[in-house]
Inverse folding.
């Protein structure tokens, strides 16, 4: 069974879709922010109570997450609500692309961490490179899981947008939205 929807109902569907997308992004940024602040606090404290490789590990965790905290803050507070279907599609595509690229970068971070660990074997300061390498591997692994999960959630949510697009019809009487249930 299908019914025709008014322009107001269409706008409501689109706004609801966009509000949910923003809620997903804000939850993601809260998760990243909590991870970052926890790593900054624990890493800062632990770096003063350890030495050598462990100290370098905690220092890198704290330093790395200053950047993550900035990204989380900017991502949380910079959300905007698109008002058109075109802008909604573009925003959805953009977030999916960013997360896919980030997942690739996360794998590069992990590889970079292993590279530092390998370089530590011939370094004048092996403990520092070993600690930094281990921290970068941990951070890269977390970020990869984070980006992959957020990507999957966004792709799943994006399917709702496609159903809105597919329900639009152009007839001699005008443009309409058919809702099937």
């Amino acid at each position: 069974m299908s019914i025709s929807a008014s322009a107001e109902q269409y706008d409501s569907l689109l706004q609801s879709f966009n509000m949910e997308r923003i809620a997903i992004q804000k939850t993601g940024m809260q998760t990243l922010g909590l991870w970052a602040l926890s790593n900054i606090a624990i890493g800062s404290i632990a770096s003063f109570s350890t030495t050598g490789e462990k100290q370098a590990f905690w220092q890198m965790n704290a330093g790395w997450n200053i950047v993550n905290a900035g990204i989380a803050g900017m991502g949380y507070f910079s959300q905007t609500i698109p008002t058109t279907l075109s802008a909604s599609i573009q925003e959805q595509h953009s977030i999916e692309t960013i997360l896919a690229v980030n997942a690739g970068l996360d794998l590069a971070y992990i590889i970079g961490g292993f590279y530092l660990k390998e370089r530590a074997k011939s370094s004048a300061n092996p403990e520092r490179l070993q600690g930094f390498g281990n921290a970068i591997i941990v951070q890269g692994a977390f970020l990869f899981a984070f980006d992959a999960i957020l990507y999957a959630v966004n792709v799943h949510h994006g399917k709702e947008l496609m159903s809105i697009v597919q329900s639009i019809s152009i007839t001699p009487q005008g443009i309409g939205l058919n809702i099937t249930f």
Remarks:
- The chain has one domain: 2-180.
